[in-house]
Amino acid sequence: MTRLLPHTLYARMVLVLLGGLIAVQLLSFALHWRERGEFAMRTAGMHSAERVAEIIKLLDTTSAPERRRIVGVLSSPPLRIVLEEVAVTIESDPELIDEAAQYEALLKATLAGDYPLKVSVTEARRHGAPGPAHGSMMHGYGRAGEGGPPAGAGMRGFAVFSFLVQTRLHDGTAVTLDARRPHDAPNWPLRMLASLVVLLAVVAAVTLVATRWVTHPLKTLAAAAEDLGNDLNRPPLDEGGPLEVSRAARAFNAMQAKLAALISDRTRIFSAMSHDLKTPITRLRLRTEMLDDAMLREKFAQDLKEMEEMVGAALDFMRGLDSSEPAQPIDVTALLESVAADAREVGGDVCIVGAAAAPLSGHVQALKRCLINLLDNAVKYGNRATIVVEDGAHMLRICVRDEGPGIAPVELARVFEPFYRVEASRNRATGGSGLGLTIARNVARAHGGDLLLRNRAEGGLEAVLTLPRRA
């Protein structure tokens, strides 16, 4: 069931509000349709009773010959009149008994005089079934044009009643009237339907606007949270709007400020440490040069070099977290050629396959540091490096492949941890600091991309750097 639900909060709110609105409108229309049908039936019964009452009054005020003439004129569908008493089959259906009682009450209310009334009712037609009423004095009510429902009028689901009214006039003459209550074919209330459609359209439009207005701050907050990982110094959120939105924006801006201050403090601490370490390292280097033992002098020099590299790597790592370098279009192909040329100058075997189709927006110095780290690892531990460039409309992929022994699968994720080194190949003898891949991945993620390592089936390690192209 959850798979069928929309994925966004905006779509879910619209679905709930519009679904509830449509349900309410359908329920309202159903109630109106039912009340409209009942009112129409009552009105039709009242008109039929008034006509029967008027005929009884008219017959009571005329002579016998005149009555027969009037009966001959008025006795036509949907009303049949005879000046005699007719045997009636008493119905046991409670619905028919109730209809007869209501019809009799209407007649008594209309007739001013004291007339003995006997009313019975039969159900002439239900669900469109043809045939005359049981106990009716006449036949053919079911035929089109003879007082029954119009042909093709769609009477299915409705009942048509035949009322048999018997009374005696003041001179004792028996009169029996067989009246078919007229029933018009149900017509759709087009005006009401039109008003409901207009109301639904207006409320739906208001719902869309209101939902968009409510969910827009959440969308802005989500976009700001995504950008925060790429640019810690991004402009703060607007703290205006409703109270809840304003509080969330203030909390987000406070969190961003604290993170920026924390990274800045760490960078300043490492910079101070670097400055303070340079002086003793320089003194130690001078004292190392004064040693007479060549082997001991070389060991000291190697240790000092490693210390300098570790300090420099740590500073590069902190600069990557607190980069204030502005973004600009980067010619990735030219950047790769420059990095590859630098690697070749120190004896590295590097080749490039493919090229970037268009410039990429990013931080050129940070991206260069990332590529240098990946290329140094490939040349140092894999003997030879191949850079494969795959460019697309939305993503630029740079794969740096080497021909080394690769890395154990359990180590592929851990090598991105700061100062972690794989002891089998990346030990102190090789000069690795354990920060190169950490810096490279931080740069990739600062650009909205990522960096992963995987072993190649044909041997060697592949570093896959993905960088999105932003509109």
Tell me what you see in this structure.
Helix 1 packs across helix 3. The strands form three sheets. This protein has a five-stranded mixed sheet. It has a four-stranded antiparallel sheet with strand order 1-4-3-2. The protein has three domains: 189 residues, no CATH class; 94 residues, Helix Hairpins; 143 residues, Histidine kinase-like ATPase, C-terminal domain (Heat Shock Protein 90). Helices cover 51% and strands 15% of the residues. About 8% of the residues have low confidence. It has nine helices and eleven strands. With 471 residues, the protein is α+β, with helices and mostly antiparallel strands.
The shape, in one word, is rod-shaped
Order of helices and strands: HHEHEEEHHHEHEEHEEHEE
**Mean pLDDT across residues:** 77
Secondary structure class reads: alpha+beta
Bin the helical content.
40-55%
Oligomer: single chain
Task: Give me the count of strands.
Answer: 11
Q: Sheet with the most strands?
A: 5 strands, mixed
- The number of helical elements comes to 9
Alpha carbon gap, first and last residue: 36 Å
Biggest sheet strand line-up: 6-8-9-11-10
Radius of gyration: 48 Å
β-strand percent reads 15-25%
For the record, the count of structural domains works out to 3
The residue ranges in which pLDDT falls below 50 over 5 or more consecutive positions are: 125-158, 424-429
Which key phrases capture this entry?
471 residues; Helix Hairpins; Heat Shock Protein 90; single chain; 9 helices; 5-stranded mixed β-sheet; 4-stranded antiparallel β-sheet; alpha+beta; 3 domains; rod-shaped
